[in-house]
């Protein structure tokens, strides 16, 4: 039975792989075979494999150029999860796609508009010259989070949209395992881009249309963080509505809130915890002022992994005729980056209006 399951490898062995990917993959271990974990160094690879062996006793340890070549040459491996520092992810993804592997790349999709444009051109060329159609997916769990999916349904009841507010007060401090991450500190946009794509993805999915233009101001207040660490932006949507995006990278009072106001009601989505589980609470305020609330625990990471496994299995059977899950597509991840890129550009231009690049 096991040889009928799709076999995958994980490229990367950092904190996120050990604390998030392996536990989430373990929840759905009946759906696939984890063939190997790769890292540039033998030490990192062995550390991650040691964690994974509790759930995947047969997982192999790969490292360096030789180990990567072995993964590329292994025809039994259908898909690869690329979980590296953002500066290296796109090049690695393209290398694996060229070898015919399906790729699930961690967000952000790219570091800049120019990298997106170059990457899309390369991917188009790879697909044109490939006997199959290698899938390039971006792991954006917010497009799969139950709270956001349910909230999107509720928006039909609030009538014409009048205002959208998105407030992120994160807690990126020395107690956070990613605080000292060197690549985030040497990355254009830093924590704003790395963290912010989640919330832009949720925003775009909720409102069901694109952000067309932005005007933003940025600042650098907490000198223990790379600049900028604060951003406040007004954005304009295709549907004619405008909204506000405000993000603080390190706050003493963490808060994440979406609030969408319509002519007949309001939907509010707030980060919280219930019964020991982290997730989001949805509150719907109807025309009569009554409020109905429901809590939805996080499950987006597991659900996106399930979707990728389903896609690579079906693509292997059906070939290029198979239509992949659009929420996973590289182009969706690119559109998230494009919004934040425009905000950061506007901040660098003292709030000048910037059009969001279309993809």
TrEMBL record:
PANTHER family: NAD(P)-BINDING ROSSMANN-FOLD SUPERFAMILY PROTEIN, NAD(P)-BINDING ROSSMANN-FOLD SUPERFAMILY PROTEIN-RELATED
Residue ranges of every copy of the GFO/IDH/MocA-like oxidoreductase domain listed in the record: 158-268
Lineage of producing organism: Eukaryota, Viridiplantae, Streptophyta, Embryophyta, Tracheophyta
GO cellular component, one term: cytoplasm
InterPro entries: Gfo/Idh/MocA-like_OxRdtase_N, GFO_IDH_MocA-like_dom, NAD(P)-bd_dom_sf
Biological process terms in GO annotation: NADPH regeneration
Short name of one Pfam family: GFO_IDH_MocA
Record family assignment: Belongs to the Gfo/Idh/MocA family.
One example GO MF annotation: nucleotide binding
Domain of life: Eukaryota
Annotated ranges, domain Gfo/Idh/MocA-like oxidoreductase N-terminal: 8-118
Name this protein carries in UniProt: Gfo/Idh/MocA-like oxidoreductase N-terminal domain-containing protein
């Amino acid at each position: 039975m096991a040889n009928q399951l799709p076999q995958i490898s994980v490229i990367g062995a950092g904190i996120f792989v050990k604390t998030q990917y392996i536990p989430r993959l373990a929840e759905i271990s009946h759906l696939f075979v984890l063939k190997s974990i790769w890292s540039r160094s033998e030490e990192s690879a062995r550390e991650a494999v040691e964690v994974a062996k509790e759930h995947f006793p047969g997982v192999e340890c790969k490292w360096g150029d030789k180990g990567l070549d072995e993964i590329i040459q292994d025809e039994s491996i259908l898909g690869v999860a690329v979980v590296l520092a953002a500066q290296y992810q796109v090049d690695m993804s393209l290398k694996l796609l060229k070898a015919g592997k399906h790729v699930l790349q961690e967000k952000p999709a790219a570091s800049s508009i120019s990298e997106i444009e170059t990457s899309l051109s390369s991917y188009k060329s790879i697909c044109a010259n490939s006997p199959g159609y290698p899938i390039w997916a971006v792991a954006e769990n917010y497009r799969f989070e139950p709270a956001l999916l349910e909230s999107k349904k509720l928006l039909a009841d609030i009538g014409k949209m009048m205002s959208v507010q998105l407030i992120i007060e994160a807690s990126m401090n020395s107690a956070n395992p990613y605080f000292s991450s060197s690549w985030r500190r040497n990355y254009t946009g830093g924590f704003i881009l790395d963290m912010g794509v989640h919330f832009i993805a949720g925003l775009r999915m909720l409102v069901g249309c694109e952000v067309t233009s932005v005007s933003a101001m940025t600042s650098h207040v907490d000198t223990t963080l790379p600049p900028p660490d604060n951003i406040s932006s007004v954005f304009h949507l295709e549907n004619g509505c405008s909204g506000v995006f405000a993000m603080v990278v390190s706050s003493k009072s963490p808060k994440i809130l979406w609030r969408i106001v319509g002519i007949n009601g309001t939907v509010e989505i707030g980060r919280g915890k219930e019964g020991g589980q982290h997730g989001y609470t949805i509150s719907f305020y109807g025309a009569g002022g009554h409020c109905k609330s429901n809590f939805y625990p996080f499950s987006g990471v597991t659900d996106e992994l399930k979707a990728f496994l389903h896609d690579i299995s079906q693509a292997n059977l059906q070939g290029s005729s198979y239509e992949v899950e659009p929420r996973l597509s590289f182009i969706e991840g690119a559109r998230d980056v494009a919004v934040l890129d425009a905000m950061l550009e506007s901040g660098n231009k003292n709030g000048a209006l910037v059009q969001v690049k279309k993809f």
